[in-house]
Specification:
The protein is α+β, with helices and mostly antiparallel strands. The protein folds into 3 domains: 1-84, no CATH class; 160-286, no CATH class; 303-569, TolB, C-terminal domain (Neuraminidase, 6 Propeller). Helix content is 28%, strand content 31%. The chain has helices at residues 27-31, 51-59, 112-118, 127-130, 138-235, 240-266, 279-286; strands spanning 6-8, 22-24, 40-42, 47-49, 68-70, 99-101, 109-110, 124-126, 314-321, 333-340, 343-348, 353-358, 363-369, 374-381, 384-389, 394-399, 405-411, 416-422, 425-430, 435-439, 445-450, 458-464, 470-475, 480-485, 490-495, 499-504, 510-514, 520-524, 531-535, 542-547, 553-558, 563-569. Strands 9-32-31-30 form a 4-stranded antiparallel β-sheet, with no helix packed on it. Strand 11 and strand 12 form a beta hairpin. Helix 5 packs antiparallel against helix 6 (240-266).
Length: 570
Amino acid sequence: MEVSGRKEWDDKHSTSNQGRQLTVLCQPCECDGDTIEAEAFCETCNEFICSQCLKVHRKLAMSKNHVIKSKNEMPISGKKQKDPCSELCSVHHTEIVNFYCEDHNSVGLGCGDCMVLSHKTCSVKLVNDVSDNYDTCEELVQIKSKTQNFLRRILSYQGDIVNNIKTADEMREKIMKEIHIFRQEINEYLDNAEADLLKGIDQLTSEQVSHLEHMQKEFESLDTEMRECLDKISNNSDKINQMFIVTKLAHERIEACQISTEELASKCEIEIFDFVKSQELEKLVTDKCPIGVINEKNRKLRTQSKKSLKDVQTTLFKRLHVRPADDTKKCTISGIDTISCDKLLLVDFKNYCLKLLNIEENKITCSFKTDGQPWDITKINTGLFAVTINTTGEILFINTSNGISKSHSIKVRKNCRGIDYRHGVLAVSFSNPACVQLLDMEGSIMKEFDIRKHCSSPFYIALCNFDNKSFIVSGFYENVLVEFTVDGKVKDKIDTKSPRKLIMTHDGAVIVCFEGISDRLNMLAPNTREVLPIAVKGVEKPICLAISDDQTKMFIYDRSNDDIKVFDIN
């Protein structure tokens, strides 16, 4: 192999008895297309140079102190030369880094001036002398591995940021919808209140108007009667006897009409009304009180706060009670998910209900009865969850913005079990017969996989990776975890004992509960799927679990004593 700076000459140029000999050429001149024989070698630049270049090399401030080998001391022609160092010293900016201090490792790299000033008593070597076979050394392998792991973490955090941006948009839409609904409720309330007042005043005035109209008719009747009396008197003015009789009769009638008139006059009064504003509402308007406030909760979605769970350690923090006094049966919590930093949503399989558990108060604050037996749960976004209803074959969408309420549901096959959601895809496992379906949010089947050959009881499922490229099911009766690609091919198979709920962490690890193993969970490491134990002291029969958004808390349901144990993740 030809080495830079050397060139084979023909026999006629040879000065030895050999057929051919390598003659070293000046490398700077060779770059300009000239073939001039080298007269020296700069160890600092790791470069062969001719006499003219050597003069320039010794004049320049940045290279005058370089280590120069004469022609007789130059490296032998058959020795492979290393690439020249080009990194400039961070302290002496015109000098090249070509020395390494073994005592100070990574901070021990520097130029000749650095070594003289700061490493006089250290073990100093030329970089050229210590870099042999560095491309295959363990340190380089470790550095590359750490860098790749760091890049994966950055990718994970970037994924978290994308998810948090999506969550922020969803939260904005949700709050705007709630404000709009509340405004409609206020408008409806005010419309109804106004209608009630208008109806009241209309009824009151109508009664009085009706009464007055009746009085008006009575007066009209008296008026007619009095006019008739006058007419009779006038008509008999030339008949004295008749006029006498008519007048006497009119006198009696006038007295009667006078009494009636007085009685009617006393009834002609009306009640006066006025409108008195609600002091509370008037104060709201006067003070310009807002119709609500945006409440900033303690929990914040920060990717920086999320921990890697590779070397996780746990400490028991609290025990939570899951069975209120009105439960008719013993609890079986088959699913857990976090609503917020202080609330959990529980799936109680035996009692046909969902429960909202306040962590701080250690109390079930409300429950929601389901038509069939619920089994598993997954979070869609802030405030919206999806629950599989095993016996009726449906996915129930639950809103938790104000207690627990049904949003909507989609029909699926009966015997639906595990459910997980990621990036617009619902993964659902079924038993009898065993299969997995990938659904869109409307319930349309995107893909379906028959997994009966590998697992007959896929109790739970977890979508893996950030792009839904694989999924894992827990085969409870087969004592196995099986990972499938989205093409339905088996990617990995792990024998284990009675696996239950499994969840994926933000960095791609999968944590699994095993009902048959006490005081321990297992974690499947990202990519390698190496099985790593997680100690959870005091848990005898872990059935299902959840992890807080910031991955500082782990919630495990222990079937042995019907409680949820909260662990701090250290």
